[in-house]
Amino acid sequence: MDLQFEQLRTFVAVVDHGSFEAAARRLHVTPSAISQRMKALESTVGRVLVERGRPTRPTPSGQIVLRLARQVALLATDALQELGQDSAEPAEFSRIPIVVNGDSLNTWVLPALAVAARERICVDVYREDQDHSVELLRRGTAMAAVTSASRPVQGCVVRPLGRMRYRPMASPEFLRTWLPDGPTVEALSRAPIVVFDRRDDLQERYLRRRSRRAWNPPRSYIPSSGDFPEAIRLGLGWGMMPPQQIDRYPAGSLVPIDPAAVVEVPLYWQQWRLDSRLLGVLADAVAVAAAEALDQ
């Protein structure tokens, strides 16, 4: 089986940009050329590799070839950067797709990405809940992830980063209105909560610790890591917040509804098992940032 580099590069562009036309614009060729390359690649592999919808998505067979294509592209950039060390020409940028949960991106990951950028690394960040991020690794969409999964995905290695500690917070006025006698089970069953999205179960984890009853308090969904704490400050409900977000607000503007309560979320870095200098630089930068920001 002879897989051509340009065909693999084309496949990555089709998946990343969502259509043959967008891939053609990215690679500065015609859509017809993209179609011909994809047909040739699928003919070589003997499988359909991409679902031709909008957006285009890799098939199960395509996910396997997509992982290979990304690995080849990264190793090629590794080599070109090494060859360019003695050249007057600037080294190429590498592009590494990663998955990061919203809270980590909002609080501690960005400094790590800035360190990696000094090595001419561009990142394509997919925001996904830490409990579901490994699925993008399995698909070949991402090469690395900040995740709560300690068990490595097939073909990946894992390293612990630390723990994010969340506390149930609310505005003082919300506390007086909804929890005047403290976080009793009866009061919590009526008090509104703020939830990031429908995959966010941090509030539910706290409630389940208080009682095994069926919880169904009023909910507001605020799917933005920047707006989520602001919604809590404004009194839409109570919600779980890490200290890095709490500390951004003036003292007293947010108060814990249950001072002793903490929900810990262990985080891990998973990445493809690939001997790439650039992927190693990114992993080390993330580990250093995590050591400074997370509980170890």
Describe the structure.
There is one protein chain. With 296 residues, the protein is of the alpha/beta class. The protein is built from twelve helices and eleven strands. Strands 3, 4, 5, 6, 9, 10 and 11 form a seven-stranded mixed sheet that branches. Strands 1-2 form a two-stranded antiparallel ribbon. The chain is elongated and about 70 Å long. The protein starts with a helix and ends with a helix.
Number of strands: 11
N-to-C SSE string, H for helix and E for strand: HHHEEHEHEHEEHHEHEHEHEEH
**Helical content class:** 40-55%
Unreliable stretches (pLDDT < 50, length at least 5) are none
Q: Average pLDDT across residues?
A: 91
Oligomer category:
single chain
The coarse silhouette is: elongated
What share of the residues does DSSP label as strand, in percent?
A: 15-25%
Q: Given the structure, what is the number of helices?
A: 12
Radius of gyration: 23 Å
- Measure the end-to-end span: 47 Å
Can you summarize the main beta sheet? 7 strands, mixed
SS class: alpha/beta
